[in-house]
Specification:
Blueprint: H1 4-19, E1 23-27, H2 28-32, H3 36-44, E2 51-55, H4 73-78, E3 84-86, H5 91-103, E4 108-111, E5 132-135, E6 140-144, H6 148-161, E7 166-170, E8 173-175, H7 179-189, E9 192-199, H8 204-215, E10 220-225, H9 235-241, H10 246-267
Parallel strand pairs: 1-2, 2-4, 3-4, 6-7, 6-9, 9-10
Antiparallel strand pairs: 3-8, 5-7
């Protein structure tokens, strides 16, 4: 005999199952490098609504060393068709990004780190694909993501004390990148520094350079790891050794400002 209640309950369970959103989480190295084929074939290719939440990214993983410190994951993920890539800069932004990707339909790679880090976006909103301007300036654009946003804030203070007007922009969404905001900035400042806890090959810097090359070529300096693996050490030791400190961002800014003068003169 047909049982209406039994069929209703079964349909309801199947519907609720379909409404659930898969969130995965482990070290960024294992979230991407170990399962790249599965991500490509089973998530990205079919556009599944899966959220890959990758912790312990970059050099600041620290003492676990090179085998656990992934520095190429942004490049791996952003090259997958349809994959959204987000790199929040502090706890508060990570929290808001997690809520935002829940409402976003499609595969997402959310990358964040391990260490205790300053919280400085507690009064800021978050929107996928929309860059955040921390300061308006006319001399140089600094684009940063993840932990290096804080380092860029520190660098900007040093540069401002030297009379250099800095436009500091948090590119928390690497893909889709906020082309309009990038162009708005570089068309004004005519030079840029990019800063990321990632290989300069394939990361944020490459994305900014692609926008500039396609629309408004400018001199750019890159702060990030230089085609290398990491090693064991404390986060502070590794950031210093691999040139990811605020002083490195400030030095890159002064270097690109010198290049900007030559570039502008050559265009005159």
């Amino acid at each position: 005999m047909w049982n209406f209640r039994s069929q209703y309950d079964g349909n309801r369970r199947r519907l609720n199952h379909r409404r659930k959103i898969p969130f995965t989480t482990t070290f960024a190295n294992f979230s991407t490098g170990r399962v790249y084929d599965q991500i490509r074939q089973s998530i990205a290719y079919s556009g599944k609504n899966v959220k890959i939440c990758a912790s312990h990214a970059g050099l600041t993983l620290g003492e676990d060393g090179a085998t656990h410190q992934i520095l190429e994951d942004i490049g791996m993920m952003k090259m997958l068709p349809g994959m959204t890539v987000i790199v929040p800069c502090d706890y508060q932004q990570t929290k808001l990004a997690t809520l935002a990707i829940t409402d976003y339909n499609g595969p997402v790679y959310l990358r964040f780190g391990r260490p205790v880090w300053p919280i400085f976006t507690d009064k800021m909103d978050f929107q996928i694909g929309k860059a955040q301007f921390f300061s308006e300036g006319k001399d140089i654009s600094i684009f940063a993501c993840g932990h290096l946003v804080w380092k860029a804030i520190e660098a900007a203070k040093v540069l401002e004390e030297k009379g250099i007007s800095v436009e500091l922009i948090n590119i928390h969404t690497i893909k889709p990148i906020d082309t309009a905001s990038i162009l708005r900035s570089i068309q004004k400042t005519r030079c840029a520094v990019t800063a990321e806890e990632h290989n300069i090959i394939g990361g944020l810097g490459d994305s900014i350079a692609q926008v500039a090359a396609s629309h408004f070529p400018i001199p750019i300096e890159y702060v990030g790891t230089k085609d290398t693996f990491g090693e064991s050490g404390t986060p502070d030791q590794l950031l210093k050794k691999y040139g990811l400190e605020s002083s490195d961002i400030a030095s890159a800014a002064e270097k690109v400002l010198t290049r900007k003068k030559s570039f502008v003169n050559s265009m005159a």
